[in-house]
Amino acid sequence: MASTTEAPPRKQHKVPQRPGDRIFSGISTGSGALILVVLAGVAVFLITEAWPALYAPASSIPGGQGLAVYIWPLLFGTLISAVLALLIAVPLAVAIALFITYYAPRSLAKVLGYIIDLLAAVPSIIFGLWGMNVLAPLTVDPASWLSENLGFIPFFAGPASSTGRTMFVVIIVLAVMVLPIITAVVREAFVQTPSLHEEAALALGSTRWEMIRMAALPFGRSSIVGASMLGLGRALGETMAVAMILSVSGGVSFNLISSENPPTIAANIALQFPESTGIALNTLIASGLVLFAITLIVNMAARAVINRRKEFSGAN
């Protein structure tokens, strides 16, 4: 019986990294860590500066009714303006992205792509001037019609503002501001849709819309969610455009066309910060902490949705 000898295991040698690889790896790791450090630094600053307002007596908070009562109208105005703007912008952005990708001639699609990218770079103060001087006067008559004919809906209860500087105009301006960002991201997702999926749907006799519904939209769903949350983040934190347009009353109201408009957190901080000192300044920072927490939660929720779709690729 022949004896068998087992070959000794080979030693695995680590492939030495080149200096360029080590430098790039170190820079990448350091950059990722720097983001976490900056985020933690911002959180620590906000918590430290807001701490006196969290435990201050209600009478010392601006308004004299406590921190929660002070922040609640700001939070309400921030959420209602951003969410309604997103409800307007997302369907339009998806429709524009689909038109550029699948329907427009190549020359027109290229021009429209450039225009979308340029709109995303327009400063917010320009949108604020446009909303205040152009859009607000144009909405006075439509707002009066909405109040007279659809006043049973809380959003259009009226009476309509005579100046047009209302939450309704703010929502439209915010929707226009976030539209280019969402469109650009969604368009890139549709461009990367696997051609095998599109060709398979068309080979089965699908119309162009059926191909989009079965191939492009499922593939770009996570990108649509991510782009929407990116636009929501900008709408939540928008400052100058809202501060220039909105005629603030300080109350909580679903009425979008009257002169009684709830403020937003970012606009209130911009307007009140130069003249605030002491506990009033701490109160403003506390409202900023609330906005920071909301933005963080929104981004985490979006990341969770995107991670659920990360297994969807062109190979399956």
TrEMBL record:
Looking up SUPFAM superfamilies in the UniProt record yields: MetI-like
Q: In terms of one coarse class, where is the protein primarily found? A: membrane
Q: Which GO terms describe its molecular function?
A: phosphate transmembrane transporter activity
Q: Does the keyword DNA repair apply?
A: no
Among its keywords, does the record have RNA-binding?
A: no
An example Gene Ontology CC term for this record: plasma membrane
Region annotation Disordered: where it falls in the sequence: 1-21
Q: Which family does it belong to?
A: Belongs to the binding-protein-dependent transport system permease family. CysTW subfamily.
Q: Please give the name of this protein.
A: Phosphate transport system permease protein
